[in-house]
Amino acid sequence: LCNTVYYFTDMKLVFGLGNPEEKYNDTRHNIGFFLVYAYADNHEASFQLKGKFRALVAECSVAGEKVLLAKPTTYYNLVGESLHAIMDFYKLTASDILIVHDDLALLFGMVRARVGGSDAGNNGIKSINQHGGDETNRLRIGIGTDMRAIMGDVDFVLGRFTKEELETIQKSISPKAVEMIDTFLAGEHQPTSHTISHH
Prior knowledge:
single chain; eight-stranded mixed sheet; 6 helices; 27% strand; globular
């Protein structure tokens, strides 16, 4: 029995998408980081750089279950490499994982849960699907506004939220996302959609 392998079968991973440098703070592409950080903050969990995972990782316990919170340091279009390293090390399956990411196709203020799906042009999700499979749980945060058409997609996702948008994120979107992360951790992640009023 000396070669028994212990698996962390009761572990969950909440994995936020974003870009690692400070200059990307408060950009639309980084709302996944923002919300995973907010969740960590609620649980007084602090992030530490884990080189082998190419991510900043925090740990907390929710309802007796070990939860990993991760913010990859790979840049947005390579996040799947970080996800794969964590999955491999902890022997996680797609059902153990929640990806929190921005979604251009949803209007700002929409928060939508789903399981799996195509990348729909999102390079981060393309990398997730490639390295971690297309069956991971998703929490999609709408970032679309009229400015998208004016700025073009690349400049838009790398642009900063307005002061008003940041207030809405902190007061409304963040609490809703935290609630939906809790729902996932309770094993009740179902396709749902919420529209947060931001007028």
